[in-house]
Write a structure and sequence with these properties.
Oligomer: single chain
Order of helices and strands: HHHH
Helix content: 55-70%
Largest sheet: none
Strand content: under 5%
Number of domains: 1
Number of helices: 4
Length: 67
């Protein structure tokens, strides 16, 4: 993830994937695997969905909740 979408990568140069490379991403990935529906429900109340969608796309979880 860091190599392909993290800081300094081509996709990151377009302003996307802002959370990749941040320490908080580890917690987001853990929640994405353990309680994806809860994460998405709480996320909608606090932050823009594009951030979560980008992390979800790069991580490639078994269940994509945004699609």
């Amino acid at each position: 993830m860091l190599r392909t979408h993290g800081p300094g990568s081509k996709p990151a140069s377009h302003g996307r994937y802002a959370l990749i490379g941040q320490p908080e991403t580890v917690v987001i990935l853990e929640r994405m695997e353990a309680a994806p529906f809860l994460l998405r429900g709480l996320w909608e109340e606090e932050l823009e969905m594009v951030f979560l969608d980008d992390v979800e796309y790069v991580w490639g979880p078994r269940t994509r909740l945004s699609r």
